[in-house]
Specification:
The complex is a heterotetramer, with 1 copy of chain A (296 residues), 2 copies of chain B (345 residues) and 1 copy of chain C (498 residues). With 296 residues, chain A is an alpha/beta fold. Helix content of chain A is 45%, strand content 22%. In chain B, the strands form 2 sheets. Chain B has a two-stranded antiparallel ribbon. The chains are: A alpha/beta (296), B mainly alpha (345), C alpha/beta (498). The structure holds adenosine-5'-triphosphate (2 copies), beta-D-ribopyranose (RIP) and magnesium ion (2 copies). The site of one magnesium ion (MG) has 5 residues of chain C, from helix 9. One magnesium ion (MG) binds next to helix 9 of chain C. Chains B, D: It is found in: Cell membrane. Chains B, D: It is a multi-pass membrane protein. Chains B, D: It comes from Paracoccus isoporae.
Chain lengths: 296, 345, 498, 345
């Protein structure tokens, strides 16, 4: 089969996006399609440019992992006007009347809500909590904050004593947690909006001899597997980006074969809560594909 | 520090007249006139033009899409906001300053605009004007701090950058705003003579500012101030007023860029534009301006803009691996700049 | 090129050529300097003197020609190379680092060490000693910023001497200093000679050349046009060789000034700089400002021209009180000042001569608010002719010779005619011919009704030009002399006593 | 452009001497000596020290935790990497250059190190040395490009920044590496006399470089080169060699910072350090260095570092809303810098 699949992705630094692209590439190879990918370095303006650049090559489908939900609309619009079908992954276009064939994603609000609910149960429904946010204003930050807030409504005993941003960065999370622990010696748990930040928080706690501090994250990165086993961190919500990437290409193939109508509009993938109890049932590659295996 | 190699070599290659045209010599000969003309044309062709041409040739050879009309239009529309911001940044750099707040001003003025429009029902035209006003105001603060306040421009604009990016998040507590009026978002797809409106706007701004810098006394004084503020002051230029004006223009242009961005994305995001800072300054400097001030101009900046725009576009067309793209871009920038040096010698 | 073998002692330069692109600035110049002697190097502005010096001192590489130092081939490829071989250059333009201390400037590139660290104590002591022999009294620990031109010139000379050179080039060392400092510098040259050092001495003050040089070489348009080996070399011969024709001094007695006061200064003072300055300047009058270096003449005129603040006193132009706080305000009121420091205050060396000249005038030159490159070039060409500037007006001023830069500086302030013109050291580094031309212009401007203040460290210049002379001493106005009263002795005694 | 206000006021307060120190004046009087001494002490107390003190007083009043031993130690350990990078950045800025690659060098040298160690089984000591070598090499490239290549430092280091950040992702295709030897990660928790090893390392580097800048001719020559490269060259300084050396040191120090980072987190991320660029330069400039070169020093940089470190720490202790933190930091920077100006007058 002859054809070109184009993908525009927010960045190629986060393992999440790397795995998603790996999944896409693998599926495209399997289907014998050419695969072009552009990474926007977390710049939504830049990403619109890249979408335009990809469209110049008239691909058969555009797989679109937008930098944020608001910017997504413009990319979709551009693709629509070029007559290229769009498969949105991870970020759903929030406005505009653009058409997408399907939206494949983790329900981030739900993932955060479930994770926090689990965490609050571990805390016995009361105690001090700190939240480490991702880059402020980014969709993942907004949705995960929202999910945690929803969980908090059911747990009046949980007191949020500190909210800081660590910009998805482990080292920044380390510093922020040091400071939070200084000001809040009674702190019991940290909700990191990503695994990297959960790890940074846990390492800061360990350094401050607070091994009892609970720390959870979202992503299910390979690095979390050992960390959970060792008790450094307690849980993570594993997403399935590799699989999402493969699905996106498979859907694209369906469109090319004229079977586009059979694709559901919304394909939420459940995130899996990984804790010490079930960690041995999974492999990192279940979530992040072969790339993850190399990283463990 | 690296003054323009261009101006330097220029100086070197043209001195015969100063030797020949002694007191006794008559009016300049024809060949001397020609040489002078050649000199002044050379002076007009600044920055790494050769580099740009080389890059373009390479890409049109490597990708069949590069020279298509659609792609060329894309390139132009893709560089619009950066270009508009770069005009302001170039002016600031010309007077020997720097403006780190340019990206954050984009975010703040866009958010204030969208917030007034959505949450207070302010008519969009007015909320946009307020957005522009915010940009100008931040520029004013930058200008006043770095003149009367005697704070280094780097520090002053670092502070306003920080403050603006925080405020941009604060107005809507980090949430994005979507849904601008249709006539406004329509501007993003408006074509005039087949050219995108936003690109024409950018080119228009470049032309007006180039005209100002070349033909208006105030504009011309920017070179004097950048060359030596004391010399400019003693020559009767109100250097403080001009400097403040320049920062205000830079802020205003950033706000204009925010409108272009808002129309294109049909949304306002509190981090919009923030990561463009380095690209904006890079465009100006690649175009031949020196951060020491006093050299550079609109033509050079435009060439710098095209170099960055073409490089990014071409990489995407060629499907270079995303991790390697920055490597290739880094190398290409150096080659583009060095090509120019070599030929200038 | 001469073929005989190089001398086993001395600096032997043969056939030195310097081309900038297609243009040749120096055309096969020979010069021989024996240890313990002094060669005077003269020539018009732009003749190539400084270029020759740069070749010898390794600042730029020659395009052709060879040099030998004490019989050994000498091809300095950097200034440090030349310094190591014992050749030092005192540049025409003062080049010190304002932020660093005097002592550090002196030892820059050769800081003395002791126990692995810079030996500051030794450095300061040595600096103090060397400066003292030059008559420069300045604390070696203070930064150079803010020191007068004369002191800076002294530091430049001390810097060269500290490197114990065997050959020293002085490029117009006395252009920026007063008579007394000039005498001290010349004494220093004599001392160096007597210690066996070979000296190349460049100056437009021909009596100095006459006094110091054992041999005089004259350059014109990059050629060596004359050479004298017998002293004393007659001054008129030197001048004729420089300009390439018979040169006659024109003597114009100043036309009388009128009764109308243009500028009135009353009780002017600025804390820490000068106090109690009061005078009137009449239409058509040239008022000379004399005094020793550092007497505060520059400070006074800078304040009058709005460049520095004035703490006390009033200034009025044509009877109208002026309240200005900036040069721009002063210029609006009709007061223009040609600053003394052309590099730091007067010219932007990276911009073209024409652009420099039009800078203060752009608003006036503009038509419909626009000023074109052509208009700038026209004005530049007009001023080029008027001030006899040698060089291309569309090139950066920095590539012009020092004297021609000075002419551009004057031209910059005289595109249109102000009410009051202040010139601070107007003929610094200008050759004899051009000097006469500048005097002539100043006199013409005065007779047309302008009021002119001339600050100059060359007493001869002040005395020759002015209707009246105001003498300053240590920041105070110590006397006002009419043309007739102003004999050198009287001026000097007022300058010293205060 | 904003030369240091410090140096300026200094200059002004000393012009009287230039009047007095004419030919007639005898040896400096006692009071003149005193004034000169006062001047040189003033010269030693640079940058916004007053600002730092004010910030510290404010925080110790607002948070009971601020002055605790634990918190102070935290502050010191939190600023270690930025501090080490800032030393290099300060040297580069001192010579009138700029190094944008510093953050990307952290990422690249850490990744190369980790990659060699994990994927090739290179003993960690050697892989670390290679990592340091990578840092020095990038510095060398920066130095050569900006001297022999006559490329403006901004452009040269922008290019290497771009290239390094791409390569850092490329070596492991963006994946992080975890699991360094225990003895190495142990360094992160090592305390000497109760002080974190990394902080001592940073302070040590500051002291050595300060000594070099003050007492060694090569170090001193940085001020001369920054003041005027031409003057320095004419005085016999090999300006090119010194400049290259400075860029190499900056690259090397960035690589050292990468080791500190790696030991602390027991992992190597391909984006580690990249976002620190602006903070690093800010530290130097807030500390009183001018981007024009020739002014600034280690003491000022250290004060700038503490200002940034204390501000961030204090905000976190007070749990200021993350949206408002940048606003407060922006304002605080201006106040800190202006306080200093006021008192210097
Ligand atoms: N870097 C340069 N580029 C081009 N021309 C130059 C350069 N340096 C000097 N020249 C030209 O060389 C000629 C000789 O200049 P030079 O400075 O040697 O003159 P000079 O004899 O020292 O004059 P003055 O008495 O005014 O100092 C001048 O016409 C000058 O314009
Ligand atoms: N605001 C200022 N900024 C920089 N330099 C200044 C300022 N005011 C005065 N100077 C310099 O300080 C020096 C002292 O000036 P002053 O008027 O005392 O000397 P002077 O009598 O003119 O002697 P000289 O012949 O050395 O200029 C001058 O070189 C002048 O250029
Ligand atoms: O899940 C990832 C996060 O871990 C972060 O890297 C940002 O993007 C999100 O989608
Ligand atoms: Mg000369
Ligand atoms: Mg003077």
């Amino acid at each position: 089969q002859d054809g070109l699949i184009a993908a525009s992705v927010a960045d190629q630094k986060s393992l999440f996006y790397i795995a998603a692209v790996d999944g896409m590439r693998a599926a495209a190879e399997e289907a014998g399609l050419d695969f072009n990918v552009a990474s926007a370095n977390n710049n939504s303006r830049e990403q619109i440019s890249q979408v335009q650049n990809l469209l110049v090559q008239q691909p058969d489908a555009l797989l679109f992992i937008s930098q944020d939900s608001t910017a997504a609309a413009a990319g979709v619009k551009a693709a629509n006007s070029a007559g290229v079908p769009v498969i949105a992954v991870d970020q759903r276009p929030e406005s505009g009347d653009g058409d997408i064939v399907t939206f494949i994603a983790t329900d981030s609000v739900k993932a955060a809500r479930d994770l926090c609910t689990w965490l609050f149960d571990q805390m016995g429904g009361e105690g001090q909590l700190a939240i480490l946010k991702g880059v402020l204003g980014s969709t993942a930050e907004i949705q995960r904050t929202q999910g945690c807030n929803e969980a908090l409504e059911n747990y009046p005993g949980i007191e949020v004593v500190a909210i800081q941003t660590a910009n998805w960065d482990e080292n920044e999370a380390f510093r922020a947690t040091q400071n939070i622990l200084t000001a809040n010696p009674e702190l019991e748990a940290v909700f990191g909006e990503s695994d990297a930040m959960a790890l940074g928080a846990a390492k800061a706690a360990r350094e401050a001899s607070r091994d009892d501090l609970l720390s959870v994250g979202i992503d299910g990165f390979p690095t979390m597997f050992d960390a959970i086993r060792e008790g450094l961190v307690q849980a993570t919500m594993a997403q399935v980006p590799y699989q999402m990437g493969m699905m996106a290409v498979q859907d694209a193939v369906k469109i090319m074969n004229g079977e586009g109508d059979s694709i559901p509009e919304l394909q939420y993938q459940d995130a899996v809560l990984l804790t010490a109890e079930n960690i041995d049932e999974y492999e990192p590659s279940d979530f992040y594909g072969p790339a993850a295996a190399a990283m463990e | 520090m690296g003054r323009q190699g261009n101006a330097m070599s220029h100086a070197k290659s043209n001195t015969d007249e100063s030797v020949k045209a002694g007191r006794n010599s008559e009016a300049p000969t024809g060949s001397e006139r020609l040489a002078a003309l050649g000199g002044s044309v050379l002076r007009q062709v600044p920055g790494p033009l050769i580099g740009l041409i080389a890059v373009c040739i390479a890409f049109s050879w490597m990708s069949p899409y590069f020279l298509t009309e659609r792609n060329l239009i894309n390139i132009f529309s893709q560089i619009s906001e950066i270009g508009i911001m770069a005009v302001g940044a170039a002016l600031v750099i010309l007077i020997g300053g720097i403006d780190l707040s340019v990206g954050a001003v984009v975010a703040l003025s866009l958010m204030v605009n969208a917030w007034l429009y959505r949450d207070f029902g302010v008519p969009f035209v007015f909320s946009s004007l307020v957005g522009l006003g915010v940009g100008a105001l931040v520029g004013l603060v930058n200008g006043v701090l770095s003149t009367y306040g005697r704070v280094q421009p780097f520090v002053a604009t670092l502070a306003t950058m920080s403050a603006c990016s925080g405020l941009a998040l604060y107005v809507t507590n980090g949430g994005p705003v979507t849904g601008f009026p249709d006539w406004f978002t329509g501007l993003a797809s408006l074509r005039i003579f087949g050219l995108p409106f936003e690109s024409l706007l950018m080119v228009g701004i470049f032309l007006i500012v180039a005209w100002w810098l070349t033909f208006r006394p105030t504009g011309r004084s920017l070179y004097a101030i950048g060359g030596s503020e004391e010399v400019a002051r003693l020559s009767g230029i109100n250097t403080r007023a001009v400097k403040i004006l320049v920062y205000v223009i830079a802020g205003l242009l950033a706000a204009v860029a925010s409108l272009v961005l808002g129309a294109r994305l049909d949304s306002a995001h509190p981090t919009a534009g923030i990561s463009d800072l380095l690209s904006v300054i890079a465009v100006v400097v690649i175009g031949g301006a020196s951060l020491a001030g006093g050299s550079g101009g609109m033509l050079g900046t435009f060439i710098g803009l095209l170099i960055i725009g073409v490089l990014r576009n071409g990489m995407a067309l060629l499907n270079v691996s995303p991790n390697l793209q920055p490597v290739v871009i880094g190398i290409a920038i150096i080659i583009a700049v060095m090509l120019d040096r070599k030929t200038a010698n | 090129m001469e073929t005989n073998a190089p001398s086993s002692t001395g600096l032997d330069c043969r056939g030195l050529v310097k081309n900038y692109g297609p243009i040749s600035v120096l055309k096969s110049v020979d010069l021989f300097l024996a240890p313990g002697t002094c060669v005077g190097l003269i020539g018009e502005n732009g003749a190539g003197k400084s270029t020759f010096n740069s070749l010898v001192a390794g600042v730029v590489a020659p395009s052709d020609g060879r040099m030998w130092l004490d019989g050994q081939p000498y091809e300095p490829h950097s200034p440090s190379d030349a310094i190591q071989r014992g050749v030092a250059l005192i540049h025409q333009e003062i080049r010190l680092l304002p932020g660093l201390s005097v002592a550090e400037n002196l030892f820059l590139g050769a800081l003395p060490m002791k126990a692995g660290r810079i030996d500051r104590r030794y450095m300061e002591e040595k600096a103090r000693a060397v400066l003292a022999t030059l008559g420069v009294r300045v604390d070696p620990r203070r930064p150079v910023l803010g020191l007068t031109m004369a002191v800076q010139q002294g530091i430049e000379i001390a810097k060269a001497i500290l490197r114990n050179p065997r050959y020293v080039i002085f490029d117009e060392p006395t252009a920026a200093v007063g008579e007394t400092e000039a005498e001290q510098i010349m004494a220093q040259v004599q001392k160096l000679k007597s210690e066996g050092v070979g000296v190349i001495y460049v100056s437009h003050r021909l009596d100095e050349v006459q006094e110091l040089a054992d041999e005089v070489v004259c350059l014109r348009d990059g050629h060596r046009v004359s050479r004298w080996t017998e002293r004393p070399v007659p001054k008129d011969e030197m001048i004729n060789a420089m300009v390439g024709r018979e040169f006659t001094f024109e003597h114009h007695p100043p036309s009388p000034s009128r009764d109308k006061v243009v500028l009135e200064v009353r009780g002017a003072g600025r804390s820490g700089a000068f106090e109690g300055v009061s005078f009137d300047l009449y239409e058509g009058e040239i008022l000379g400002l004399a005094g020793l270096i550092g007497a505060g003449r520059t400070d006074v005129v800078r304040a009058i021209a709005g460049a520095d603040r004035l703490d006390r006193g009033t200034i009025s132009v044509d009877g109208r009180d002026i309240q200005f706080r900036s040069p721009k305000g002063a210029m609006k009121a009709g007061i223009f000042m040609v600053p003394e420091d052309r590099k730091g205050q007067g010219l932007n060396l990276d911009r073209s001569a024409s652009e420099n000249i039009t800078l203060p005038w752009e608003k006036k030159l503009a038509k419909f608010g626009q000023i074109t490159g052509r208009r700038v070039a026209e004005v530049g060409e007009t001023q080029k002719d008027r001030f006899d500037i040698r060089g291309r007006m569309n090139l950066p001023v920095g590539s012009m010779s020092g004297g021609n830069q000075q002419k551009v500086l004057l031209a910059k302030w005289l595109v249109e005619e102000p009410r009051v013109l202040i010139v601070d050291e107007p003929t610094r580094g200008v050759d004899v011919g051009a000097k006469m031309a500048i005097y002539k212009i100043l006199r013409e401007l005065a007779s047309a009704g302008m009021g002119i203040i001339v600050v100059s460290s060359e007493l001869e210049e002040v005395l020759g030009l002015s209707h009246r002379i105001m003498v300053m001493s240590e920041g105070r106005q110590s006397g006002m002399l009419s043309r007739e009263e102003a004999i050198p002795e009287r001026v000097m005694s007022l300058a010293v006593s205060g």
